[in-house]
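Schema walk-through. Below, the input block comes first and the output block second. Nothing else is stored per chain. Lengths vary across the set, and this one has 258 residues.
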Amino acid sequence: MPKFAANLSMMFTEIDFLDRFDAAAKAGFKGVEYLFPYDFDKNALAEKLSANGLTQVLHNLPAGDWAAGERGIGCLPDRVGEFQDGVGRAIDYATTLGCRQINCLAGKAPEGVATEKARETLVGNLKFAAEKLGEAGIKLLLEAINTRDIPGFFVSGTEQALAILDDVGSDNIAYQYDIYHMQRMEGELANTIKAHLPRIAHLQLADNPGRHEPGTGEINYGFLFGFLDDIGYTGWIGCEYVPAGATEDGLGWFAPYK
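--- output ---
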């Protein structure tokens, strides 16, 4: 049976962030993920996890100025020092939170920089992060994101992401497959996941269109969850969706999996 993590950056947003841990546990989730922990005291977050019996499944590396529209700095040649400092900060938080996976957001393709230079920068940064995270017992992930929601995002497809992982050449990096993003970019969800299952360490979901909860759009999640069981996927599935209404009102899809 799939195991699901509530994404607290997108779910239960009607309440204060630290209260979302309680709400996720009350709703039946055993794990949580969210974009970034860095605005909060790491010990306060750890206390919330412990009090609710929750696993911290995932968070991202620092990704630049999010409020200003930055969506990662991994491919930016002039931000390598900042990226490396962010790896150290992420390890500090993840160690306290017991988080064993950290995702890298590659960022938007930088203006005025050749694609090959941006790719070279990303590969170098990932090599650095994979090594440092590995020393701390943490797996590095790389995610592809659709370019309709984030125009210009540098990594936008499965084959591209896997080719980058090949060039990194580390056994401590894996692919984070986001079902919603890849439905928008590629389709062919089930066969793609099956073909690359050994390289996928984490899944995320939302339905399309709208990026709402399963059952609100075109993706046959009932089939897909059964398919994931059949092919032996044992990782977490992060629920990175925007509830169509109040979060709790849209959790009917989750009832069979508590």
